[in-house]
Design a protein that fits this description.
The protein is built from no helices and eleven strands. It has 124 residues and is mainly beta. The strands form two sheets. Strands 2, 4, 5, 6, 9, 10 and 11 form a seven-stranded mixed sheet that branches. The radius of gyration is 13 Å and the shape is globular. The N and C termini lie far apart (40 Å).
């Protein structure tokens, strides 16, 4: 069973940066596809970025060029570097994983393991 634990959230002013991390446990095959999602108050959860074991990445259009998803296999950690943050990026950010190696890994696929979330607040 995969366990995910996010960290790195906080409050920043618009234009600032934050780096989220997600510590993962469980067999690597169970987290061959990993992603970051976010959910703002009163809104549906949305996919932000994903990456797979081959290094393929996929981003939500509104974060392209500002956010970067990466992994450190030695540390079993997923990261999300967020630059040029905007107030509309304010949300709770969640880490997610699946082991569906036969499926295409992107933010629209299904994930079966989730972290508890970390809050990101961007003020104008």
């Amino acid at each position: 069973q995969v366990q995910l634990h996010e960290a790195g959230g906080g409050s920043v002013q618009a234009g600032g940066s934050l780096k989220l991390s997600c510590a993962a446990s469980g067999h690597p095959d169970s987290r061959s596809c990993m992603a970051w999602f976010r959910q703002a108050p009163g809104k549906e959860r949305e996919g932000v970025a994903s990456t797979d074991i081959y290094g393929y990445t996929n981003y939500k259009d509104s974060v392209k060029g500002r956010f970067t998803i990466s992994t450190d296999s030695a540390k079993n950690t997923l990261y999300l570097q967020m630059n040029t943050l905007k107030p509309e990026d304010t949300a709770t950010y969640f880490c997610a994983a699946n082991g569906n190696t036969g499926d295409f890994c992107y933010i629209g696929t299904s994930f079966d393991s989730w972290g508890q979330g970390t809050q990101v607040t961007v003020s104008s």
